[in-house]
Design a protein that fits this description.
Blueprint (H helix, E strand, L loop, with lengths): L1 E2 L7 E2 L23 E2 L14 E2 L9 E2 L6 E5 L18 H5 L8 E5 L10 E2 L3 H20 L10
Parallel strand pairs: 5-8
Antiparallel strand pairs: 1-4, 2-3, 6-7
Organism: Nitzschia inconspicua
Protein name: SET domain-containing protein
């Protein structure tokens, strides 16, 4: 799990200087207007009421299928304890989770119907994700028309 203590940490600002001196950190100019938000959690599962983001490997590669999704996420401790591993950290606090040393399996992907071999597994990320994605696509489309040479750090 990753703990994001404040959403302010995800805000991006222009770089203060383009120094020729190599440093290990970048200095941002917070006196300027915010230019966007980090997309660090774009490929991680989260919840607006939690500052914790569970990390996984292949599960983050499951695409958004919207209303046509063929699977859903089941969390340990919900729907009759669908995961039988003896652990349930769903309702633990950040402080309680900081003491957990082992890797735990607290969620799984459940098919809504039979999925044929070779078919893509998709989840419904929810309406708020779709709205944010649509806003990003609109913003990026306008930006790319203005400037064809966008550096990767500007793509937020």
């Amino acid at each position: 799990m990753v703990h994001i203590a404040s959403t302010d940490l995800m805000e991006m600002y222009p770089i203060l200087t383009e120094s020729k001196i190599e440093t290990t950190c970048t200095i941002y100019d917070k006196s300027k207007e915010r230019i966007g938000e980090q997309v660090l959690v774009n490929y991680a599962f989260g919840h607006p009421e939690s500052s914790l983001v569970p990390l996984g490997t292949q599960v983050t590669l499951i695409n958004h299928g919207g209303k046509q999704a063929n699977a859903f996420i089941a969390w340990n401790g919900e729907k009759g304890d669908v995961i039988e591993n003896g652990h349930s950290y769903l309702y633990n606090s950040v402080e309680e989770l900081s003491g957990v040393a082992e890797i735990v399996f607290d969620m799984k992907i459940v098919a809504l119907a039979d999925i044929k071999e070779g078919a893509e597994i998709t989840l419904n990320y929810g309406d708020s994700w779709q709205e944010a994605w649509d806003e990003y696509v609109a913003w990026f489309s306008k930006r790319i028309k203005k400037d064809q040479n966008i550096r990767s750090r500007q793509m937020t």
